[in-house]
Amino acid sequence: MRFWKTAAVVVAGALLAGCGPPQVDQGASGEDKSTGTLRVWLFDEANRDPKEDVVNAAVREFEGEHEDVTVDVRYIAVDTRSERFTGAFNDPSSAPDVAEFGNTDLASYVAAGGLAELDTMLGNWPAAQDLSESVLETARTDGKTYGVPWFTGVRALYYRTDVFEELDLDPPRTLGEIAEKARRVRAARPDMYGIATGGKYTYAMMPFIWAHDGELARGEGARWESAVDEPAARAGIEAYTELLEPNVCPPEQCAQLTGTESVQAFAGGKAAMTIGGDFNRAAVDAGAAGDHYDVVPLPGTEPGEIAPAFAGGNLLGVLRSSDRSSLAEEFIRVLAGKKYQREMYEAMGYLPTFEDVQNQVSSEDPTVRPFVETLQAGTRFVPATPAWSEIDAQEILPTMVQRIVTEGELDSATAEAARRMNDTFRD
Asked: Would you say the pTM of this structure is higher than 0.85?
């Protein structure tokens, strides 16, 4: 059975740039009421109905088990989340008790002092033992946990089965084979990109760095140092930029492509491969490639390896200002628990964060299996620091990639990117 029921699903934590930390002084509430109204903020969707149906079912269950408690759910626009959270951190009377937020926003919100630690809650919740450890890592900063992973998203390699069959090609077994087979496609089918990927598609580049044992940066807390100019990272960056050459995906057409645009090119029949997320399946199904594609995990540097993917996704957390923190934690255990994660997958196509639930859905729906295999092979994340949102906003890494593919300056471009990253880390 296939559960890809919606139009393209946007995973906010995976696809949107993080926002700078709200500069506030947020104190923890001294109260912990067990009755009254529990306020909840969740992200709105282009089509809210499937998500709202699942949330409403969880609310009914929770209210049925908690006499004299009402759950008030408000849906907020993802694009205005920075302003909404800044206001909530500054004014506890307007703040929710429970909130959904992207995992790339976590470090900023923690730096603002707006979120409560959840390590004790997770330690007392038996189901938490089945949470994917690498996904749970996206809810941590400075060794403490501030969110429960509600759903996650990873990217894998999409390829055109009809084109590969026509050219007698097998799916790439290594990252190096991606460029090799993309060149063969481009030579035989000059009307297509060998692979659609872009200079502004940083989440596609990251696995190449990690698969070559490189890092984006090293550090913890407030002390980080860029690593993109180290030999291992440079090897991964070089392997990625080989995909942005005239005989694969010409720089004049591909250097400006974002992730969304790369997937759109594949979905529209303009490319033989792309790196796309589980959340892109509906869009690809609806496009020209819809009946002629398959997905495999993005391979590593050796046959049989899977490249570490960026783990996007959203978390549920408790605000420090909440005067119903115990109720808030209990509600999260319901809404982010196995039952409703499974229902969210069926309604929205969001990948669960519990490994046993992942195994269930992949055994029932083979189309999701490559993404689950990627998740369970181990994912990675961006540096857990508020500075990362500034690095992202400045487009330091896209600028680096574009300089490499247009000027051929690998060493100087990575050195300049490292310098700019370090300036931002130290600000």
From this structure: yes
